[in-house]
Design the sequence.
């Protein structure tokens, strides 16, 4: 294995948690459209793009939605979601995540975010990490969402590193698959720790620093 020089973090579920905001926004859209939606369905949306998430929700719809209608629903969901993000603050950055990030930075690792979300930079600003990372690759600069490895490949390029020189930290199966297919070392937390594709399962985020240091 090549020497690890960089760490690429997924955002939601690793750096912070916005699942509840996504759920509330999608729920508002689904309820208005009279489409059944619950937390079990919501779990299927983790790590996938907005339009792919909408397609999953519309599986329960009683009619077929046009492409134009789907674009409108996705945009309306995002506006609701962005409004909810105003509730986030620096308190949403846990001490465990903060100490891990600064510990890795102190040891010379290059740090990046690799997220499919187009709201990544706004979220980072809200939790006090707006200027912290060496690179941010997100939904604004990719054409394909996870499990396609594009978001991580671009993050590595921004860091000036090869995939094998980077660890990807993920909480979702789609993200672990993207890391695997892109040639990255992967560290899985939560659900992703149980994936057979995960190179290094983590019980907590602090274990990442213990492993790398």
Sequence:
């Amino acid at each position: 294995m090549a020497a690890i020089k960089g760490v690429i973090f997924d955002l939601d579920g690793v750096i912070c948690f916005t699942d509840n905001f996504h759920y509330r926004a999608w729920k508002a859209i689904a309820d208005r459209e009279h489409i059944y939606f619950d937390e079990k369905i919501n779990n299927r949306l983790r790590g996938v793009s907005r339009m792919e998430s909408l397609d999953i929700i519309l599986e329960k719809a009683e009619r077929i939605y046009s492409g134009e209608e789907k674009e409108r629903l996705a945009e309306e969901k995002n506006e609701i979601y962005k409004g909810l993000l105003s509730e986030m603050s620096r308190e949403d950055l846990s001490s465990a995540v903060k100490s891990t990030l600064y510990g890795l930075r102190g040891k010379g690792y290059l740090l990046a975010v690799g997220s499919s979300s187009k709201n990544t930079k706004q979220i980072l600003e809200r939790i006090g990490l707006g200027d912290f990372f060496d690179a941010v690759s997100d939904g604004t600069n990719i054409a394909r969402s996870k499990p396609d490895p594009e978001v991580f490949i671009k993050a590595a390029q921004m860091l000036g590193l090869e995939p094998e020189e980077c660890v990807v930290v993920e909480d979702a199966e789609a993200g672990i698959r993207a890391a695997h297919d892109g040639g990255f070392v992967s560290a899985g937390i939560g659900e992703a720790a149980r994936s057979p594709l995960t190179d290094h399962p983590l019980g907590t985020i602090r274990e990442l620093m213990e492993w790398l240091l």
Remarks:
- The chain has a mean pLDDT of 95.
- The beta strands are 6-9, 110-114, 135-137, 166-170, 185-189, 200-202.
- The two ends are 16 Å apart (CA to CA).
- The chain has nine helices and six strands.
